[in-house]
Amino acid sequence: MKRRTLDIAFSVGGALFAVLLLILGLVLSDQGDFASSYVHDELLEQKISFPAEYNGGETEVEGSGCLTEYAGTPLDSGAKAECYANYYINTHLHHSAEGAGYAGETYSSMGSIIGGLKADLTAAQESGDQAAIDEAQAAVDSANGLRDTMFKGETLRGLLLTTYGFSIFGDRADTAALVCYLAAALLFLLSVAGIAHAFTSKHAKDVVVKVAHEG
To answer: pLDDT tens digits, residue range 11-47?
Structure first.
């Protein structure tokens, strides 16, 4: 096999592989665009916006600088969804728990606490002490209200973080598409160089692989 034939074979193979990489890049770009537009459109439909100002201590939490960056803007991207979930909703949930006297508690852990408060209410009702009944009932109502707030807040936070995770896949698809485009461009240039070398090199007719014939 002549050097020219070998150069052409490798160049054509490289060009075909470059085409495959280009197609893969287009598919990944399409998926990345879909993820980004889907997240953007779905979040806008919720009509959630960051407050223009914060007065609940949200910006005092470490890592909450994004709240200031996004202040007054609509929640319309995965990055904003993560910021809103982790530094706005989460901070409000912690403050609500602290204000009600249940610092550090969550929706799940409040279940057993409410069970204990209901037991206290039953005991008060059995004693017939109206003051104790009123106090126990108020405690149950307060805990139930907090748990309901936690349920709504933690549900929204979970949905926003899921949306953020989906947007990350879109970002990675865009990055992978860029890598495919660069690799395809490089292979195409190498293929063109290989073809040019095959027809211009003074060694193009040299035999690099001898094929044995049985006679």
So the answer is: 888 889 999 999 999 999 999 999 999 999 999 999 9
Long-range contact set of residues 182-187: C-beta below 8 Å, sequence gap at least 24: 183/18, 183/21, 184/18, 184/19, 184/21, 184/22, 184/25, 185/18, 187/14, 187/15, 187/17, 187/18, 187/21
pTM (2 d.p.): 0.76
49 DSSP assignment: B
| Res. 213: pLDDT tops 70 | no
Q: How far, in Å, are 38, 168, 176 from residue 32 at the CA level? A: 10, 9, 9
What one-character-per-residue DSSP string does 138-187 give?
A: HHHHHHHHHHHHHHHHHHHHHHHHHHHHHHHHHHHHHHHHHHHHHHHHHH
What are 68-86's pLDDT values in tens digits? Answer: 999 999 999 999 999 999 9
Separation CA 28–CA 176 (nearest Å)? 7
CB 197 within 8 A of CB 5: no
The structural domains of the chain, with segments of one domain joined by +, span 3-200
Torsion, CA 99, CA 105, CA 109, CA 115, rounded to 10: -30
